[in-house]
Amino acid sequence: MEAELTFSREIGNLMYASHGNPIKDCLQCGICSGTCPAVEFMEHSPRTLIGMIGADLKDEVLASNTYWSCASCYSCTVRCPAGIDIADLMYALKRYSIWKGKHEDLIGPAFSEGFVKMIVRTGRSFEPILAPTYLPRFKAIDLFREAQTASTLILKGRMPLLPKKLKGLKNFQRMVKRIIPIGEEE
Amino acid sequence: MSEKIGVYVCHCGTNIAGIVNVEEVSQWAGSRLKDRGVVIARDYKFMCSSLGQELIEKDIKELGLTRVVVAACSPHLHERTFRTACERAGLNPYLCELVSIREQVSWVHTDKIAATAKAEAVLSGGVERVIHNEPLEPLKVPIHPDSLVVGGGIAGIQAALELADGGNHVYLVEREPSIGGHMAQFDKTFPTLDCSACILTPRMVQVGNHPNITLLTWSEVTKVDGYVGNFEVAIKKKARYVNTELCTGCGICVEKCPKKVVDDVFEAGMAKRKVIYIPFPQAVPNFPVLDAPNCTFFQKGTCKACEKFCPTNAIDFNQKDEDITVKVGNIVLATGYDLFNPRRIPQYGYGRLENIFTSLEFERLCNASGPTGGNIVLKDGITPPKTVGIVHCVGSRDQNYNGYCSAICCMQSIKFAHLVHERTGADIYNFYIDIRTPGKSYEEFYQRVLDEGTHFVRGKVAEVTEVARSPEEEGKLIIQVEDTLIGKQRRIPVDMVILSAGLEPRYDAKETGKLFGIACSADGWYIERHPKLDPIATMTEGVFIAGCVQGPKDIPATVAQGAAAAARIQGKIQQGEITLEPIRASINEDQCSGCRICNDLCPFSAILYHEDRAVSEINAALCQGCGTCVAACPAGAISGTGFSNEQILAQIEGLLLLNIDQKESKKVLA
Amino acid sequence: MKQYAYYPGCSLESLAVSYNLANIEVSRKLGLELSEIEDWNCCGATAYFPVDEFLAYTLVARNLAKGEKMGLDFVTPCNGCYKNAYFTNAYLQQDPDLAEHINSALEEDNLHIEGTSKVKHLIEVFVYDVGLEEISKKITHPLQGLRVAPYYGCQLVRPRKNGEDVENPRYFEDLLSTIGAEPVEYYSKTHCCGGSLIVTNRMAALDMINKLLQDAVKSKADVIATTCPMCNVNLEVYQGYVNREFGTDYSVPVMYFTQIMGLAMGIKPNLLGIGKELVSGATMMSFAKVKESG
Amino acid sequence: MNNDDTFEPVIIGFTCNWCSYRAADTAGTARVKYAPNIRLIRLMCSGRLDPTFVLKALANGADGVLITGCHPGDCHYVEQNYKALRRFHLLKRVLTQMGIEPGRLKLVWASAAEGAILAAEFDKFINEVRALGPLNLPLQKQKTFSTPALEEVAA
Question: Of the CATH numbers 1.10.1060.10, 3.90.1150.180, 3.30.750.24, 3.90.1150.10, which one belongs to the domain with range A7-99?
Answer without folding.
Answer: 1.10.1060.10
